[in-house]
Amino acid sequence: MATADPVPTTPALRSEFPAPTHPDRLQVNRSDKAFCSGAYSLIDLPAGALFAKITTATPGKKAYTSVQTGPDTHIELNSDLVYCNHSCEPSVVFDMSRMEVRVVDGRPLKAGDALTFFYPSTEWDMDQPFQCTCGASVCRGLITGAKAMPADVLGEYWLNPHIEDMLKGQ
């Protein structure tokens, strides 16, 4: 189900995270093929539960590896959470107002599940749009960010407050 690995798996970038940052929570399955690595849960959690706090982030600029935290702000995760890919049927949400990753409402997370989130829930205008290949029955196709998505589609997802505010200002 993985669709977009936010970090190419070059040896130089692999060395940035020499040891797992969440060894009790997730496993990174790395691939030498660009955009094919992914993060997988090592634990079972109920719907809505906290998966991990985001604690190693640093301010960043808009980039394919960053996560948007406000209308004009981005962070670099600096952790294995960067391997959480996009899916149109996500397993977690990245709540940037609380700096945490939670299991989606409506279904539990099981050990072995891919850790995926809906990129437009954090991103207004993607640095690198891509054609989604998540395979979900609700796959949205070209992912460019919340700015270009119909309101009825976005209404099916949990969205960060900064995305909701930007939608109101459109």
Automatic annotation (TrEMBL):
Coiled-coil parts of chain: none
Span list, region Disordered: 1-24
Keywords in alphabetical order: Methyltransferase, Transferase
Molecular function GO terms recorded: methyltransferase activity
SUPFAM superfamilies xrefs: SET domain
Start and end residues of each Post-SET domain: 128-144
TM segment ranges: none
GO BP annotations listed: methylation
Record-given protein name: Post-SET domain-containing protein
